[in-house]
Sequence to fold (343 residues):
Amino acid sequence: MTDIGVITMDGPAGVGKSTLARRLAAELGIAYLDTGAMYRTLGLRLGAAAADMAEGELRARCRAYSFTLEVREEGASPVLCCNGTPIGAEIRTEKAGRLASLVARLPVLREELQRAQRALGESSSLVAEGRDMGTKVFPAAGHKFFLDARPEVRARRRYLELEARGELNGATLEEIQRGIEERDAQDRNRAVDPLRPAEDAVIVDTSDLDLEGVLRVLLNSVEARRTTLKEKVALVRARAQMALSAENAAVFQGNGGGQMLFAAAREDALAAVSAVAARRGCSCRVSFDLRLHDELVEVEASAEEGPLADVLVLVGVQTAASALAAALPGRRMDIHAALLPEA
Ligand code: DC
Fold:
């Protein structure tokens, strides 16, 4: 089931998003991306001073950290790494949560993390968990979920969780509920990327369901949509391939396994596709998949069948491959691009 693409999972604190996103990813055999962990990591690394940094400095500081999903043991799920080191329990503290919430309000920092998140979604199928996955980061995702639960239910779950960990510190259920309601208001009303369901998200109220019940709802919904898509939509696909020299392959390694190069190439390709479509007066959504296999780069584009879809997917893969070639030493490269037969 690895061709599933991106599944987005948004919702307020305390709905069980993390557990469910992780389980859903494991059931489907795809990666899990915890975007809250990225905000927590930058919150800890940059500290409260980030809020006072000039835009240029903040951007440069953010770019010093690169996020990757890496398989550390054979057969294990990929883990989120920052500059090559797995992100661990150090981000699960009250302080990290506070700093994350502070830096999450900074538009430049959000822009940088969102770019990194899109790049990760480019290179593999994943369940992306956060607050703005369906609305902002992956608006074209094939499957979107928004989990919610009544505040009193979330408060009770949080209370029991803290009690089990011996971390209640005298807090009452009422206090915890008030805290949850305050954080909800902050998340839903903040100026940049407020928490809200995407228009095409499936909203799941988890108040009266247990974990296994919600997981079943999510899996059924993914399967139903995949079947409908397969039945209804014929896709037009093109692929471009480019063999790399060892020197070129090293450039990819130095760019987070190619993810930064892929993100830039995808942007160029999308711009080229939009320009051709606009000139010819048609509209068509093209999706891209860029991969590095050993020393071969593969770019695949797909679009629903329609006027000019074949031209647009070909323009897309050729532009993306050319943009990658232009970023590599030597520059003269053989690019083979062709339409693919119907799946
Ligand atoms: O889900 P979490 O508690 O680990 O998130 C930490 C903080 O990051 C929280 O204040 C919300 C923020 N966040 C965000 O603004 N956008 C995301 N996509 C993920 C988290």
